[in-house]
Write the structure tokens for this entry.
Amino acid sequence: MSNYIEQKEGLIEKLIGFSARNKYLVVTLVAASLVAAIWSIQNIPLDAIPDLSDTQVIIYSRWDRSPDIIEDQVTYPIVSALFGAPDVKAIRGFSDFGFSYVYVIFKDGTDIYWARSRVLEYLNKIIPQLPQGVKTELGPDATGVGWVFQYVLVDKTGKHDLQQLRSFQDWYLRYHLQSVPGVAEVASLGGFVKQYQITADPNKLLVYKIPLTKLIDAVREGNEETGGGLVDFSGAEYMVRGHGLVKSIKDLEDIVVSTDQNGTPILVKNVSNVGIGPALRRGLSDLDGQGDVVGGTVVMRFGENALNVINRVKAKLKEIEPSLPPGVEIKVTYDRSELILRAIENLKHQLTEEMIIVSLVILLFLWNFPSAFIPIITIPIAVILSFIPMLGMKLTSNIMSLAGIAISIGVLVDGAIVQMENVYKHLEYWEAGGRKEDYRQVCLKALKEVGPAVFFSLLVIAVSFLPIFTLVDQEGRLFKPLAWSKTFAMAISALLVITFNPALRMLLLRVKPFSSKIVNALLVGKYYPEEKHPVSRVLFRLYEPVCRFVLEYPKQIFIGAVILFLATIPVYLKLGSEFMPPLWEGSILYMPITMPGISAPEAGKLLRTQDALIKSFPEVKSVWGKAGRMDSSTDPAPLSMMETTILLKPEDQWPKIHRWYSSFPQLLQGPFKSFWPDHISHQELIDQIDATLQIPGSTNAWTMPIKNRIDMLSTGIRTPIGIKILGSDINEIERIGTEIQNIIKDVPGTRSVYAERTAGGYFLDFDYD
């Protein structure tokens, strides 16, 4: 009969029996897997949130022309040439003075480097048709979300001017940081770019009968290095070189432009003035309202590990710190690693708390240490092992992926609890029946009895998130890490139920039971009948009256439940909705917009005024403001658009305020302090700063650095909510936008609204005769 039962056992029962018989092998394999899992945890990429950016390729063009000319002759031809490119989801073009940006957005899942090669193929067809002088290139393999680290150069001695600091940033510091693995580019901002400037004298050109184009050609040809082949001399080859590279003002002044009627050379200095000055500025920065500073932004390569890249950048900065100019130091104005570490540490803390609470609940309700020990130890093992497939799938450890593990913790132990409850019940019968059978066989039979059902029930829960894998684009990138991590944790838990749990249970029974009181307590414990269980007796007293009342009045209970359900409908309809859960990043991004056509000096004055007002708040640690664009194709901002990154002090350093509960100081201690803070909230701080920054001609917008980059990448709009107006007449589009601005500014909940002046700007036109 026993042979017949053995033949009828399924695969799961056989696996449970194998694990129980080979307990040391199973435990050893689990231990080895834990070592691999710990290695995976140490090497898995860390980030605050999943990378929600689309696969994007930037085409960046430079030409010294006005925006309307660039739009017609550069941006529009490039956009038109890309129509029909494979897997392209959207194309956005943007034109500014001297610059053209075309953003090619590809479908979800497209490889970034395959996309760049396709764009290059199509771009090669249109480049020969662009006007002469247009310089077109692909942007870095990065997006605005890759702005992970920002810094400024501060000279406390005053020995170095802004031009020298900008030269140091462009020609020394930037190249060192760009060599760091994972860095796509380092964009410079602020200061003055050194430029040799030749100011032609039209009267002298007229006297010498030299056209301006000839002067330009002479300067270009006089600044060249040339070669003249080889010369055999004394049995050796000599390579001929002609040195013409300009290295000083005198070199430029001595370039020959032409000759007079007597053959006397006419030099550049004879018809113009040569000097050094700053290049035209399309972007500037300010620190704490104290004036212009030179800064840089480290742009991370697409798909890289943000935390590792930032750590490598910090190490490089520390390495080159001794070579900085005397008195110059690097001050960090934005560091995403602080947010990443804070988010991960917070989730680790919550996971630990959750595991402890679940373990205590299991111990309390089972009231038997051996039965509770196995479910308790299953939780951390399943959580830790989940990181092995996460690393294999190239998932990052972030808020969403760890949240998937967090929401599955309560379910991870279901299988182990059911198994131990069944073992507990069989041992109760075994003890009541006089302990006639072998103790181990009773446990094994109980494990096999529920093993298959428990295993498949956990798999059903594991596959319950399968619909999430059908999500695409930003929705998929946001929620798939959560679904993957939860599925991995549940699948590993199901596997542990039929392998590790039986092995561990059998391992705990290696010592002969009842050999001593200590062994009896730790390995076997005391088994109570259900009606005599210490916890169950209390629960029965609470549950039984309620259950009897419900059974006596079923109709009334049903009607009450329906009424309660209907009462929730108005509340549900008033609930708001948001695509992404709100995440406080710890820093604020202030993005005021002013009227187009503002000059660089005037933008600098406005920026300094705003930054000084923000820095006056005691909660603010530092303020780094940016007006216009950095030297990067990932930043198309005009001078009328400002971005100010506000770093805040730790909240325990914020000024304390008086609230209604301040007379009860005991409430502010311990765990209740987070519920009743003794300082203003983040939103109250933003409201106070916003009320202070009501500057005429400037419209305020408040967001956070990562959130803003995601919004701009997904919609092309600088704020989370916007209205796009499409049409053929740019003036009509601007008129409609102004009307919409006046209509929606009074909508409840609207802090500020601004309609872009698409046709705005000041022009000095010359009509040729």
Notes: The chain has 26 helices and 21 strands. The chain has a mean pLDDT of 82. The two ends are 113 Å apart (CA to CA). The longest strand covers residues 88-96.
